[in-house]
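Quarterly update, task 2.4: magnesium ion-bound model.
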Amino acid sequence: MTGRGTSGTGTPGLSTARVAASAPEPRSGIAPGLLADVRTRLGTGPAGPPDDAAVAAALRASGRVLGSDALVDLTRAARAELTGAGPLQPLLEGPGVTDVLVNGPDDVWVDRGDGLRRSDVRLPDADAVRALAVRMAAVAGARLDDASPVVDARLPDGTRLHAAVEPVAPAGAVIALRVLRQAVLDLPTLVAGGAVPPDWEALLTGLVRGRANLLVTGGTGTGKTTLLAALLGVVPPDERLLTVEEARELAPVHPHVVALAARRPNVEGVGEVTLTDLVRGALRMRPDRIVLGECRGAEVRELLLALNTGHDGGMATVHANAAEHVPARLEALAALAGMPRPAVAAQAAAALDVVLHLRRRAGARYLAQVAAVRLADTGELEVHPAATWDGPGSGGPRAEDGWQSMVRRWSAC
Ligand SMILES: Nc1ncnc2c1ncn2[C@@H]1O[C@H](COP(=O)(O)OP(=O)(O)O)[C@@H](O)[C@H]1O
Ligand SMILES: [Mg+2]
């Protein structure tokens, strides 16, 4: 032990998040003494998070709550402290919030979709940050302590939790929360917000409706998952979507989504369910479309196989810093599955129709290129640009060779 905090036992100071007087953010407004009392009454057993009724009963039993209005408010506040993200909960519930990051007690950041901004929320001290991280990990059913100092888990409401404590975070515990929200950025919103040129909207809709097999590419944080979710929102409602992801991120606005998420092996090294397993499994679950949230390993083989055997309308994202890197990237991933290069080229060219490549410049994320996937005369896999855009404020996109035929083929769909 390093002496920094105690794992899992007390939760010192969780309730005492200080919020600067000028802060616009709400605070939980529950007295630390009352919260401690409620915590004691609820017991410290390993049972799942207490529900509203249990919290309300504990509050009532404390004899310090008068009036049913106060009880409702306090129940909500107490539950946030006891089971949710404590002092971070109001930030997570704020409109448009995508990420909440805690680097230290006085170093809390929030992204409301327009970049990271420092928040006024403070935690009492470094021990409180660690205790909060440990408690959220426990709520997510995971362990976080000196022996297992990094956690990647999901809170009951779908929020993704990443946290690290000493010894891997020597300056003190750090927490990163990513909110799972229904895709707020639908295709028209992406167009209106300048992420997609208006000229391309009809083509994108046509590609989805026409069941093109699409690969969304770009660097980290360029908006691949966001665009993918928006495209899924265009899929006709009578189609059944099977999404496969490492950890659930996609929450498209669509009435028929079956989400599968991979599982890591447990500490004994058993119980792993890989993306490859899930793509295979998804194919047997009567999908109208297979969606692979992020393709980053050997599962590319199953994806290409599926798309080449009648499962059209499939979509996936792949990390690539430029559209012309996509062939090499696919070959590298497929090599992990033992596929030789010429086989990857042939399969990918047959399976994939269009690459949608995203870029990020000066904080703006935008669709920079629409490209066709094909097999060159040399037998190499080729991603051939059909239109290119330099982003918001740069004027319209430039059509390249092949744009007209792409539009003719897909726009009318
Ligand atoms: N067009 C956009 N406008 C505003 N925020 C966006 C846009 N696209 C993505 N984001 C935000 O940027 C972050 C990263 O996006 P994400 O789609 O997860 O990227 P990737 O999948 O490429 O890593 C998310 O918080 C997301 O909400
Ligand atoms: Mg992503």
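Highlight for this quarter: The first helix runs from residue 32 to 42.
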